[in-house]
Amino acid sequence: MKHTFTLANSSRQSTPIMLTEIEYDGFIGYGEASMPPYLGENQQSAAQFLSQLNLSQFHDPFRIEEILSYTDRVQAGNTAAKAAVDIALHDLTGKLIGKPWHSIWGLNAANTPYSSFTIGIDQPEIVTEKVKDASSFNILKVKLGAGNDREMIHTIRSVTNVPLCVDVNQGWTDKQQALEQIYWLKEQGVVFVEQPMPKHMTDEMAWLTAHSPLPTIADESVQRLSDIASVYQVYSGINIKLMKCTGMLEASNMISAANALNMKIMIGCMTETSCAISAAAQLSPLCHWADLDGNLLITNDLFDGIKIVDGKVSLNELPGIGIKPKG
User: Fold this and answer.
1) Binding site, residues?
2) Which class would CATH give 104-325?
């Protein structure tokens, strides 16, 4: 990490990842598992899971749903490791077709949203430095929930007036105080609030959403497609992350389900290389918001991929997920 990454309940200076390759007919697809501690995965568990897979039984890489269904059934959990397979498979098949996945899906690359840039919880002087470094972004994502929420917002507002979104990472536990805080945040130019309360506080969260002047977005409360029904009418929308939902295929299905329920959609990320970021970006034209800055928070990206240009997700025409290895 370029800076220590602090959330409402934890800090870290690095995130373990596992990179994968799937080879077929002289083409290589690249994938990635990013495993922040709360996912419960690490390099050892990912290696153990991947060692169980026998993809050589499949002779046609375009049988994507069948291959990923098999991968999902091998062992429960391991969503990031499964995402590494999904991303590599999509990269491979896109290269075999010779087109990027946003084009295969028939999406307009001009319809990508702006991406936020994440400002972690820190001392005012460090927050100020981070905000100045993010001057090219048109929206900032601010981590809250550690007891210094207003100090964080005041510090950022001393530097910039761009719109903000806030991610509380389950840091608020009193619904009335949370509502008061949201009304104050709206006055500060905040456009939505992500995961304000603990995921088990469903009734309190539904009340908060019903009274909130801002949309509420589920993150920790929603992981996979099967979770969407439980957050419907509890949150205004969902944050979809490839590492939580097993990859691009399930993410696209989650987008369809959320649209059917008239829920807002955000495509997010962990701290990842440009491999996983570029994979998620292929879906971004379908989303209201994007938070695809994970590759910008690290010092050792191994890939060149999609870019953020004038704050907007900018897709390229490289086949597959839109990346090439550096060097």
Assistant:
1) 167, 194, 219
2) alpha beta
- 95 has catalytic annotation: no
pLDDT above 70 (res 7) = no
According to the model, what pLDDT value does residue 8 have? 61
Domain 12-102 has CATH 3.30.390.10: yes
Q: Which of 143, 175, 244, 264 is catalytic?
A: 143
Arithmetic mean of pLDDT, 36-63: 96
Q: Do the domains 12-102 and 104-325 sit in the same CATH topology, yes or no?
A: no
- Which residues belong to the annotated binding site for Mg(2+)? 167, 194, 219
* Residue among 263, 324, 253, 262 at smallest CA distance from 283: 253
Tell me how far apart the alpha carbons of residues 284 and 97 are, in angstroms, rounded to a whole number: 21
Residue ranges in the chain assigned as alpha helix (H)? 43-51, 64-74, 79-97, 101-104, 124-133, 149-157, 175-187, 202-211, 228-231, 242-245, 248-260, 274-281
Domain boundaries, the chain: 12-102, 104-325
186 is catalytic: no
Do the Cβ atoms of 228 and 256 come closer than 8 Å?
Answer: no
pLDDT at position 9 is 65
Mean model confidence pLDDT for the chain? 96
Catalytic residue, candidates 141, 199, 241, 244: 241
For 210-233, write each residue's pLDDT tens digit: 999 999 999 999 999 999 999 999
